[in-house]
Each structure stands twice: as C-alpha cells, then as structure tokens.
Amino acid sequence: VQASFHDRLRRAMGGHAVLPVQGVRCVCDEAVPPEIRSLQATFLPEGRPPQEQDVLTFLQQVLVHGWAQKAWAEVDRAAGPPQLALHLVLYPPVKSVDLEVPPAWRDRVLASLSSRVPLGARFNPEAFGQALSEVIYGLVMDDAPLVDARGSGFDPATGRVRVVLREPRVASVKVEPSEGRPVDAASLEHLLAPLAHGPLRTDVLQKRVALAEYRTHLQRLRSQLVPADVALDTADLVVTPMPLPRHRVDLSLGYESNLGGQGGLVYRGLDLGFRGTELELRAARNRLQEQASLALRWPVGLAPGTGLEVRFGGWRQRIVDPVAWARPELQGGQPDSRMGVFDADLRAFVRFGNLGTGKATLDLIRRSAGFLEQGQSRSRRENAAVLGGEWDNFDHHTLPRQGLLLRGRYGLGTSESDFDPGGTFRQGYLRARGLQTFGEHVGGDLDLEWGYGENLPLDRWWAVGGPDFVLGSTTLAFLTPNFAAARIGLPVRFDAGLGLTLE
Questions:
Q1: Strand partners, 269
Q2: I need a labelling partner for 200 at 20 to 30 A (CA). Which of 102, 113, 170, 484 fits?
C-alpha cells in the first residue's frame, strides 16, 4: 500500500467511514487473477457502499498473499460519478531458476520450488518464502541447524528466481561462567573443541554436550550460537555450564518377590579438596545381599580423561541353593550358606577415542574373602591385577537405539587360604553388543557375552542370572566358573507422548 494512501483516502472521504463512490473497479494491465476477483467479491461486493476498513483489508490481503507486486486504491472523479479504483501491478512469470547451494541440497531445493514456484507461473513471494522455509526446516531436522538463505530472491526484470543457501561455520567454542560451583572450563573446552572450524551437526552437538555433562559433572550444559562477524559467515558456540550441587544424596526403595524389600543409598561429593575430585559412597541391602563401597577419584594431569581411583568396599551374599559343583570354600554344599568379601582397589584409567567413548583401566586388588557353612568359617586372601578396556558409542537415548559396545577384562591373581593349597587363578570376560535401527519404530539387538575362569576361587565365580545378568533369568543367580550367552532382540518402539518412548 502506498505510504500516502491512508491520508489521501481520509481526505477523499471527508471524514466519513463510507466512501462517497458509486462503484468499484480494478485497474490492471493484465487479466485480474481469480484469487483477487474472489477477494473483491468478499470484501467489496457490488451493491454495497465500500468502507475504509474493507478497502484496507482487501489491499492488505492482496499483498500478503503475494497476488500482486503493488496495490493501491484511489477515488476517481475524472469520468462521471466518483468510483473507487483498485490499481494492481502483478508479478511477472518465473522464467529461470538459479541455484547456489551445496550439491547435497540441490534436489531438495528443486523439489520444493517446483511444487510452489513452478516455471511459467507468476511469481508469488509468499509461496517462495514457504518453499525456502520448507527447505530450511528439513535441513534443520536433518541435523543442519545453521543455514543462511541471504541473497535469495526474485528479479522481476529477468523473471529469474535465485536461491542461495550457505552453512555458516563455527568459529570457536566459548565457555561463559555461571553461578554455583566452579567448573573445569579447560576440560569442557577440550571436549567441545572438535565442534569448531566446521559446519555444525545437531547429533554431534548433542553427543558432545551429553559427554561434557557426564565428564565434568554438570546438571545441564546450555548452548547457543552467536554470530561471530557482521557477514554472519561464522558463529561462536557459547556454552553456559549449570553445575551439579557439590553434595548429592540419592535414595531408592523397592520390592521384589524373591529379594524382598530393598533399599539403596548413594552419596556423591564433588570438588572436595581440589577441583576434579569425586567422592562416592554406596550402600544397598535386600534379603539376600548387603553391599557398601567408598570410592575417591581424581584427575591426573598427564592427559585429558586420565585419572586415579581408590576404592574400598565389600559385600555379603546368602547362598540359598547349593553350589552346583563341590568347592573347598563350602565343602558340604549345604543351602543357606554365606559368603562375603572386602576389597581394596587402586585403579588407573584413561579415556580415548573421537568422543572419549573408549576407556582403558588397570586395577590392583587386595581381597579378603570369608565363607560360613553350618557354623564353620573359612577365609581366603587374594591379590589380583586386572586389565580392562571398553568401547561404547551408543547414542544418548534413555533406551539406546544404535551403536556398538565392546567390553573386555583379563585378570591374573594368586590366593592363599587355611583350607586349600590356593595358587594362581585366571579370569577373562568379553561382551559385544550391537544395536541397529531399521526405521523409526523397529530395530535389531545382538548381545554376546562370555566369562572364563581357571582355578577361580568361589567368590570370583560368575553369577549367571539375576538382575545384573544379560539374560535376566531368575533373581536367584546360578554360580558357575565359565559361561557363554547370546541374546537376539527385535525392539519395537512407540512414542508415548511427553517425550517418552516405550520399547
């Protein structure tokens, strides 16, 4: 609408709401499109004196929907009785399309343009905007959150539609301080550094953010993209860490038909003494088991992800059913025996891999084990060294959908006791689990697990079955020195609303 139209219209009306005209006509160099004719019949029908509001609404609708390049109205008194003249300048037809987009996006852009702004049809800015929005929305949903469409448009003189799409690059990662417990900004920047100097991908950002939250003990890591230059060709990724409280206590209660009432307590203390330390206290009890542990972890400055851990802990187990194979620890194989251990463990660990998904550990363990059978007690002392490693790149869903888990341990040890010769023992463990999605709702799951033991003391046998075992089985676990298991699954998932998924 021309800028001065409103004032001129008021002067022509002489202050009255109804225009002093005896008819309405469209003035256009070409045939008036049917959309505009329909709009005129709705707001400015024949036989009804036009009002200012109706005229303004008509012009606004014509321009908003892109049916005309220019539109204005005036009262024409030149020829006979005064009439309301609706002047229209239509857009020219689209004659050519010029794309300046990455090759991977070309087919997507052409498909959207051909459905909304086809060649030969009159250009429509509203439809063109919808086409661009559709493309950009699809790219964002396909993990490309930064898309720059500046430079796109239509040249009426040539009839050329031009689409320009670029991906601004992340210039740097910056950590902004927040209130609360200080965080390890250097480690945080190191974990997020691979996001800089390239295009941003949403899935990579989510993995890095989840990893940073876990490694640096954050409640949440807020992220935002800030333009780094006037041209908007680059952006800075600015993250604001929201740290976990220094002290945290988690309490859990439950009931299970075989284990009876259950209770658990976990206390975590962060940055106690100096930054990066973690103190963890765990305790749990049910009808068959009691366990407690105290662990202190702290980083070592040799490399990011390197640290030491000291752990003291123990557990006590009721053995309800007889052990399947005779053992000197429980000679009579009587049910309702008891077994308990106390461990002192020194662990060194280092993380590696593109996302820190790999971890290698070395444990030096001193164990004291005790066995009680029909009022007779026996004890054993053990020393062991265990080398372990794992690779876990599962995605960060509550129920992972895709990825690979490889985990292995191998240990050597010696034992001495007051009831058998003892000697050297060996122990090994391997697990391989792969998850793959075959669509939004269906996936595949293959899980292989193997445990090996040679001359193992009873307290190091594998508990096959029970809540911690890959196959589940019964809660009353079966003790064995060797086992192998395989599980094949076909997970089916349904969205339950509120961001929840059922599997």
A1: 247, 279
A2: 113
